[in-house]
Specification:
The protein is built from twelve helices and 22 strands. The chain is an alpha+beta fold.
Length: 434
């Protein structure tokens, strides 16, 4: 059963009210995914809004023994939109690297689902796909239109505390620099967690506030039963358009100075010229090129843009773009084996730094530094990098976020700590209750 309906946005509530009504309708489902690019212009595969609600069929991968079953699930549902996530914990199944720390949020390593209802907003058209017989597209439209535009709840201030204090963080960075000096690695992405236990929050309200404070092109509201992701990511992990694979790693961050246009432009130029940030960025570019060479046709891997500077509400980012033509004999699991976890959130060499991450980070990453996205009916796909995000488990009332950065021998521990605080600006502001 597959019913579809196309509606001109001219007959839909004015933007952004229609988007909010769709989000409010979607949030009532115990499993849902709402992907929003906040109308950032892009020449890469992207849609304005893509949302899936409810579950017709799903697949959970817990070990590498399930890899063949994953491809069977994807083949079974060709012609439909599939949503889902890849947690950082998937490294255990992909690379036989153990996960040793407790899980307080509850996202499994890999989960994909075919929704009961899929809604796509693009080019001034709302398209509704119904994959379950209990839904009629016209009824879905009527329910969305009838949803209130508001719906936010009062959210009292919440204070999250660091898993390690500042001095402990600085000491960890020095320990990692010693590993780099010994030649164990060239660069390592090191993250720290801020958390609150036994707190009650409204995830939908927090997501709306996060989107207002930091609208980014790979934002998402994602729920799987009691586990929530509220994401304001600016980074793409990987996408496929036809046989063309694209990755856009971020390495390099500087603060916006929106009160002074000249100073803000100077900050952009300083980031573009930064030897440290260029060094980090090109290391990750080389890592992605190497990853792509394992799954792309010989001679097709290229760097489309190096050291591009892009501006977002709180920060300027240095982003590079790498692409290549996927080999015909490569399947989705093999793409993950070659590229996941993404180099911007690990470092180089990838396997060794993942061992060091497990040793030196105090918290389990879970879905943080993983990916959320979709596979389109034609097999194209697009997945973000889960950063600048809040995580909440409604059952145990655990709330957290993580921030990190790339560490090289040239890293100044104090500067790295300040960069972490900068990346958490939007999240801290919405949790302050102001």
């Amino acid at each position: 059963m597959h019913e579809s309906l196309n509606i001109s946005m001219d007959t839909f509530p004015a933007w952004p009210a229609g988007k909010i009504q769709l989000l409010n309708w979607l949030s009532r489902f115990s499993s849902c995914c709402f992907l929003d690019n906040h109308r950032y212009a892009s020449d890469k595969p992207n849609v304005e809004i893509l949302a899936g609600a409810g579950i017709v069929d799903s697949f959970t991968l817990l070990s590498h023994n399930d890899a063949g079953l994953l491809q069977a699930f994807l083949d079974k549902h060709k012609g439909k939109y599939i949503f889902g996530h890849l947690a950082y914990d998937l490294k255990e199944a992909l690379h036989q690297l153990p996960v040793t720390k407790p899980d307080s949020i509850g996202f499994v390593p890999l989960f994909f689902f075919v929704p009961e209802v899929c809604c796509l907003m693009q080019h001034n058209i709302l398209t509704i796909h119904c994959y379950h017989a209990k839904w009629k597209a016209a009824d879905v439209l009527a329910q969305i239109v009838e949803m209130p535009e508001a719906g936010e709840k009062n959210q009292p201030a919440v204070t999250l505390v660091p898993r390690m204090d500042r001095l402990a963080y600085l000491e960890k960075i020095e320990q990692l620099r010693a590993h780099i000096l010994r030649g164990d690695c060239y660069e390592i992405n090191y993250c720290q967690e801020f958390f609150a236990d036994k707190v009650t929050v409204d995830p939908l309200t927090l997501y709306k506030k996060l989107s207002e404070a930091s609208p980014n092109p790979f934002s998402c509201y994602y729920r799987n039963h009691h586990s929530y992701l509220l994401c304001a990511s600016p980074e793409r992990y990987i996408s496929r358009n036809g046989n063309r694979l694209i990755s856009q790693p971020i390495k390099g961050t500087s603060a916006r100075i929106k009160s002074d246009a000249a100073a803000d432009e100077a900050a952009k130029q300083a980031l573009h010229a930064s030897a440290k940030d260029r060094s980090e960025n090109v290391m990750v570019v080389d890592l992605v090129r190497n990853d792509f060479s394992r799954i792309c046709k010989e001679g097709t891997v290229q760097v489309d843009e190096l050291y591009g500077i892009y501006s977002y509400p709180q920060v300027h980012q240095m982003i590079s773009t790498i692409s290549g033509e996927q080999r015909d004999d490569v399947n989705f699991w093999e793409i993950l084996q070659a590229t996941f976890p993404m180099g911007s959130m690990t470092g180089a060499p990838k396997l060794r730094v993942m061992e060091l991450i497990e040793k030196y980070e105090l918290s389990r990453r879970g879905l943080f530094s993983g990916a959320v996205g979709y596979i389109a009916p034609n097999g194209d796909f697009d997945f973000n990098v889960v950063i600048r995000s809040l995580f909440y488990n409604e059952s145990n009332r655990y709330l957290s976020y993580q921030v990190g950065g790339g560490i090289t021998w040239y890293s100044n521990p104090e500067d790295e700590y300040e960069e972490c605080m900068l990346k958490a600006t939007a999240i801290k502001s919405i949790l302050s209750g102001k």
